[in-house]
Design a protein that fits this description.
Chain lengths: 146, 148
């Protein structure tokens, strides 16, 4: 955790440096990716075992929502402290606002489907957050915009 | 238990339960993605790639029609879904082929160029899943008669 925080701080200080293909993987992006894929795997396994949304799968979705909110706040802080994404800002924020809503919407949706398919929707939410979060980081660091 | 009973009496929409739930969720993701992208591109830089942006907008509209009609019960909505999802399949195949044969026509990507390569080929798989689901829930399926 300390290592992740220091990586994030380094990334904050480094600012918008020229990007290689993996340089978008700063501490917060890695945290978001790992949490997203963790939620996806946990929920997919639970769904394959025939379980509806339960304490563990909803818990991991809540954790995902928390991480997403923190990542959103980090981008906000960086923007207000005068930094800019290298890619288009509108696209970055379109992804971030979507990602911010995905776990909550998936959670609400499980209330009307208590079958295993509700659990699969939670797994999909984890995957969508991971992919869109990575895309947002690529836009910030300018991967593909050189 | 109660849920199963309501399903038997037909008050639960069969197309929004089970796998349909996941398919509609996938459509919802693509509605948000394609419409926000196309809306912004057309509003700010339509002249740069008019063909690509028009096709993106068309794809977005098709995704909206598919997502909405899939979540409405009844045979009429089923037929609307069938037309929308068939259009989607034809669209991703035609635009995919077109973008591979004539890349110069697409200076900026659409959801459907390269058969949906930029979106992990989900745009290619989604209409196939959608058609399979429509087949599973087709309204004209002969049903055994349960007495009166």
């Amino acid at each position: 955790m300390t290592a992740l925080l220091s990586t994030a701080t380094t990334a904050l200080q480094a600012g918008t440096a020229p990007a290689s293909t993996t340089s978008y993987l700063d501490g917060w992006t890695v945290t978001l990716l790992l949490t997203g894929f963790l939620a996806m795997v946990v929920c997919a396994v639970s769904g394959l075992n025939g379980h509806g949304p339960g304490r563990v799968t909803l818990g991991v979705t809540a954790l995902l929502q928390l991480v997403v909110a923190v990542v959103f706040a980090v981008y906000l802080i960086r923007t207000f402290s005068g930094e800019h994404p290298i890619g288009p800002a509108w696209e970055l924020w379109a992804y971030l606002v979507t990602v911010l809503m995905v776990p909550a919407v998936a959670w609400l949706w499980t209330r009307s489907d208590t079958s295993r398919w509700g659990t699969f929707v939670l797994a999909l939410a984890g995957f969508v957050v991971a992919v869109m979060g990575a895309r947002a980081a690529q836009l910030w660091h300018g991967v593909g915009f050189q | 238990m109660t849920r199963q009973q309501t399903a038997d009496t037909g008050s639960v929409n069969p197309r929004t339960s089970g796998p349909g739930r996941l398919i509609i969720a996938l459509y919802a993701v693509f509605v948000v993605g394609s419409l926000s992208r196309a809306g912004f591109q057309i509003a700010t830089k339509f002249g740069e790639a008019p063909l690509a942006y028009s096709l993106s907008a068309l794809a977005g509209v098709v995704y909206v029609v598919a997502a909405v009609s899939l979540s409405i019960r009844g045979p009429r909505a089923w037929w609307v879904s069938l037309v929308a999802i068939s259009t989607e399949l034809v669209g991703v195949l035609a635009v995919g082929l077109w973008s591979v044969l004539d890349p110069a026509a697409f200076p900026d990507a659409t959801v459907w160029s390269g058969f949906g390569r930029g979106y992990l080929y989900v745009p290619l798989v989604l209409p196939v899943l959608g058609l399979w689901w429509l087949w599973r829930t087709r309204p004209m399926r002969p049903r055994p008669t349960h007495g009166a």
